[in-house]
Amino acid sequence: MLQNFSVLMSVYIKENSNCLRQSLESIIKQTLLPNEIIIVKDGPLTIELDDVINEYCGKYPMLFLVIELPQNKGLAYALNEGMKHVTNDIIARMDSDDICIAERFEIQIKYLINNNLDIVGGQIIEFSSDIENVVSIRKVPLSHNEIVQFMKFRSPFSHPTIVFRKNLFEYLKGYDATIFPEDYDFFVRAYLTGFKFGNVKENVLYFRLGENLSEAIKRRWGRKYAMNEMKLYRKFLRLGFFSPLDFLKVLIFKIPLRILPFSLYSYIYFKFSR
User: What is the reported pTM?
Assistant: First the structure.
C-alpha cells in the first residue's frame, strides 16, 4: 500500500478560473489520490478564481488547505510558504492550469519509492487551447546519470511534474527566491548535495501553453531573461557545478538565443528545444 502524499499548487490573479477547475478536477480523479492538497493564493485573486477554490474546499473540506498571501511574491516564495504546511513526506507539484494524466501520481510515487529516489519527474504533452491541440511532447532523460549530464545545458525536469521528498526540500531550505528559473537552481543544488533523480518514461501531464503560443514563449526570451540566466549560470560556476568550460559553453550557445529577433527565437524554440 502506498503512503500518503500531498499536492502543492500556487495560484495568482492572472490565472484562468476554467483552467484552474480542469487542473483540480484532474487531481480529484487520480487513480491514486492525495490526502492533502495545499493551495497557496499568491496575493489577492479574482472573484472567479476564489469561487472555484471555495467550491472545491466545500466539496472536499478534509482534503484542501488554502494559504493566503497578502501580496504577490512569485512562485518560489509561494511554494516555500506552502511547504511550511505540508504534513506528508512525499509531495507532488502541480500548476494551476495544467492537467494530470489519470495515473500520474500512481506511476510516479511507485517509481520514487521502488527506486529509492528523491525527485521524480515525467514526460509532458504541451498543448494550446485544449488537450486535442497538441503542440509538442517534451522528452527528458530517465536515469540519474543521464539527468545529471542533461542538466549541464538545461533543466532536466519539467517543474510541474515533479514528485519529491520533504527532507530534500528542508535540507536545501527550499527554493532560492532571488534566482530565476528557481526550479533549475533547486535541481542543481539537490544534485550537489547528493540526492538521487529519476524521470518516468510515461507522459504524466498536459502542459498548457495557451492559445497564443508567441506570448507563452516570450517569457523565456529577451534581455531581462538573459540577465537572469546569466545570474543563474554564475551561481552554478560558484557552486562548482559548472567548470569554466561549461560556463563558456552556455555563454556562447544559450545567452545569445535570448536576444535574437523574436521570430527567429520562436522558430528555434519549437524546432529544436522540445
Answer: 0.92
